[in-house]
Every structure is written in C-alpha cells, then in structure tokens.
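R.M. (postdoc): so does anyone remember the format we settled on? I'll just put the structure tokens first.
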C-alpha cells in the first residue's frame, strides 16, 4: 500500500483537546421598511413625523442544516471533523476544531509549496519533478513525497508556503506525514488551489486539480462518495495510517472538490480512532454524504454566484 510503504516514520502524533464549533453564513435576508406620510392638524408642512421602521429579521436558511451537522459530528466525541464550502454561493459549514495528523493529504500541501517556489511564478516543473508530483498525488507514492519534501526544504519550506496560502492552523512536522491540521485549514488550502485570487497561477491551479482528478481508482474513496450519480467532476486526495499511541487504531482523512451544475463544493473530512481502515473510510464517506445532502437541501433555489 503506497500510503504505508517507503516512509518508515514514527507514528507518534498529538491530537488537541476536542471542541466542536460551527461557522456559517446567512444566505437570505428579507427586510421591509415604510414611512407613513404626515397628516392631520399636528403635521408640520414638508415633514413626516418620526416613526419606527419595522423590519423582518434576517432568515438564515442554513442554520437548521448546520445544527444537524454539528449534532452528527458531536456523536464522534472529537474523532471526526468536517467542513464544506460552496464556491458558487454563500453556503459554508465547519464542525470540529480538533487538529488531526494529516497522513498523506499533506501531499497536496507539499505540491502547492513546490509550485510557489517556482521562479518566475508559473514556471513549468522539470520533467523529473513533474513525474514525482504526479506519483505523489495520483498514487500517493511516499518515495516521491520524500523527494519533493526535500525540494521545498521540509517543514520550514511548508511553513513559509502556508503563510502565503493563508493557512493558520497547520503545524508542519519534520516527518511530513505527522503534520497536523484542521478541517478549516484544509478548506483554506483548497480555496487557494481553486480561486483566481489565490497565490498560484492559473496553470498551477489546473495542474493540481488535474492530478487530484486522476487519483487511481482504488484511492478514489472518501469525499467522492458525496457526489451526485454520474458526476465525473470530482477531485480528491486521501490519507490513512495507524497510530501506535492509539493502540494501532486508524486515522482516515479525505479532502477534495465536487463540481455540480449549481454548486462547486470544497470539502474536508478528518477522523481518527478507527478499528480498521475500512471502518474509517465508511465513517468519512457517510459524513461527507450527510453534509452535502444537508447543504444541497438548504440551498435549493439559490442561483449561482459570480466568482
């Protein structure tokens, strides 16, 4: 299995004390105002008497969905966190602030750091570096990740790149797979990799998304389970490993993008404390499916937003 071979790293990892929080955006507001015309003996010519301005409170149509997502995540007692953002609307949710070990999802972060080091920006990678990048993302090759980790100067290089990418809660480790992160930071990373306002050139963004779309079939699980039937516009990178300090239990993570007719979802699911990799995959896929089902239902009728 590519994820576990060729690294030989210690598996000690630290997970912060669990808290669960939600962040959302009000997606609809309805206001009504009117001022009565002055009339009668007490009215001054040309002026209207002051009167209260009745308003209808803003209606947050995502609030019930976010509450259900929070309750769903809370059942896992800190061993699950999810976040999703629709690039075509204001729909967004974050449930869980625990920092999890990345395992191989950090390879997307490594690739972004590598591309940011190109001078001038957008300069094509050498054929050998491009080959390593493809192996690292498409088949999660660890030897390729080690080579590119060295090219970006390890944890120091990743830290510098993450400042430019807007990440706030990711802590690089000298052993790349033991880097820790949050779902909120993974959404920030995915945003930087897809937005024209991000630090990468259009060519670099296309390159990263192209590799995430080509991930080999046996590794296309995780957030891809949340796509609608027949939708091929799915981009993913998964990470999985065991943790000795957790009795050899599994951590299973998945990040990605799902583009639909009316939505452009960025989604991250991080988790740990699973009895097997298969059990972890099932938890991640159910969580991703639940979150997008709730958000799709809550945003029915929304028109597409301009980028």
């Amino acid at each position: 299995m590519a994820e576990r071979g060729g690294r030989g790293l210690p598996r000690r990892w630290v997970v912060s004390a669990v808290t669960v929080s939600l962040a959302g955006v009000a997606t609809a507001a309805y206001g009504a105002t009117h001022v009565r015309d002055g009339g009668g003996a007490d009215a001054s010519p040309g002026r209207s008497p002051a009167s209260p301005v009745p308003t209808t409170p803003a209606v947050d149509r995502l609030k019930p969905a976010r509450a259900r997502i929070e309750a769903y995540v809370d059942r896992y007692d800190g061993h699950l966190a999810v976040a999703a953002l629709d690039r075509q609307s204001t729909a967004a949710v974050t449930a869980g602030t625990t920092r999890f070990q990345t395992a191989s999802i950090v390879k997307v972060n490594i690739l972004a750091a590598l591309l940011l080091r190109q001078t001038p920006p957008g300069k094509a990678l050498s054929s050998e570096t491009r080959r390593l990048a493809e192996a690292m993302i498409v088949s999660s090759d660890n030897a390729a990740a080690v080579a590119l980790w060295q090219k970006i100067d390890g944890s120091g290089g990743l830290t510098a790149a993450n400042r430019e990418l807007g990440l706030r809660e990711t802590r690089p480790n000298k052993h790349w797979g033991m880097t820790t992160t949050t779902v909120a930071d993974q959404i920030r990373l995915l945003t930087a990799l897809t937005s024209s306002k991000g630090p990468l050139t259009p060519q670099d963004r296309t390159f990263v998304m192209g590799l995430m779309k080509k991930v080999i079939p046996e590794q296309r699980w995780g957030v891809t389970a949340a796509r609608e039937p027949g939708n091929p516009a799915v981009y993913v990178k998964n990470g999985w490993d065991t943790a000795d300090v957790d009795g050899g239990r599994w951590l299973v993570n998945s990040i990605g993008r799902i583009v639909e007719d009316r939505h452009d979802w960025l989604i991250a699911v991080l988790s740990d404390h699973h009895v097997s990799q298969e059990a972890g995959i099932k938890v991640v896929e159910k969580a991703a499916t639940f979150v997008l089902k709730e958000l799709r239902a809550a945003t029915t009728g929304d028109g597409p937003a301009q980028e």
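R.M.: ...and that's the designed sequence above, right after the tokens. Also worth knowing: The CA atoms of residues 41 and 49 lie 12 Å apart. The helical segments are 63-74, 106-116, 127-138, 142-151, 154-165, 183-192, 202-213, 277-298.
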